[in-house]
């Protein structure tokens, strides 16, 4: 068999086929990324039912969970953190060891606070230092905006 002849006859078909497979893979990946960012997806886990219910009543209900809970410094950091937090959440869901009231870690709190400032930067232009020395730590005073303080509350409506 003549390899040179084989390559010349099928190169265009392989390039087109590879392009089609690449487009399908990118589309499926983008679709899965968007789907796995929604409150419906995040709330599908037993341990997140309360968070989903309270969020659905909040003033931020039009946002996806990832808008607050993932860093937006770069796409690479975003997707690495999305994978990491997804695996951590899945592990705890399988092990059924989530506490009744989920608490944010220090790094999660920093991410959420940074995202508050990312979206509300114009509001914060006039704030030099918050009450009680919070130094622009939004969650000191506004921690119940998106999820409320118990399952009966849907956060604080500020619209």
The number of distinct β-strands equals 0
Overall shape: elongated
Euclidean distance between termini CA atoms: 73 Å
Helix percent band: 55-70%
Description:
58% of the residues lie in helices and 0% in strands. The chain has 159 residues and is an all-alpha fold. The model has no long low-confidence stretch (mean pLDDT 83).
Kindly list the characteristics that best describe this protein.
159 residues, 8 helices
Secondary structure layout plus pairing:
Blueprint: H1 3-35, H2 39-42, H3 49-55, H4 65-69, H5 75-95, H6 106-119, H7 121-124, H8 139-142
Quick structural summary:
This protein is mainly α and 159 residues long. The protein has helices at 3-35, 39-42, 49-55, 65-69, 75-95, 106-119, 121-124, 139-142. Helix content is 58%, strand content 0%.
């Amino acid at each position: 068999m003549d390899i040179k002849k084989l390559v010349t006859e099928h190169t265009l078909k392989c390039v087109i086929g590879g392009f089609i497979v690449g487009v399908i893979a990118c589309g499926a990946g983008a679709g899965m990324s968007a789907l796995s960012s929604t409150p419906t997806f995040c709330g599908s886990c037993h341990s997140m039912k309360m968070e989903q219910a309270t969020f659905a009543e909040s003033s931020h209900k039009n946002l996806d969970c990832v808008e607050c809970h993932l860093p937006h410094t770069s796409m690479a950091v975003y997707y690495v953190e999305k994978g990491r937090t997804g695996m951590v959440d899945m592990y705890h869901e399988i092990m059924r060891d989530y506490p009744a009231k989920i608490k944010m870690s220090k790094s999660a709190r920093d991410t959420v606070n940074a995202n508050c400032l990312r979206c509300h930067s114009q509001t914060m232009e006039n704030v030099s230092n918050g009450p009680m020395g919070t130094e622009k730590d939004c969650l000191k005073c506004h921690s119940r905006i998106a999820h409320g303080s118990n399952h009966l509350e849907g956060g604080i409506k500020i619209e």
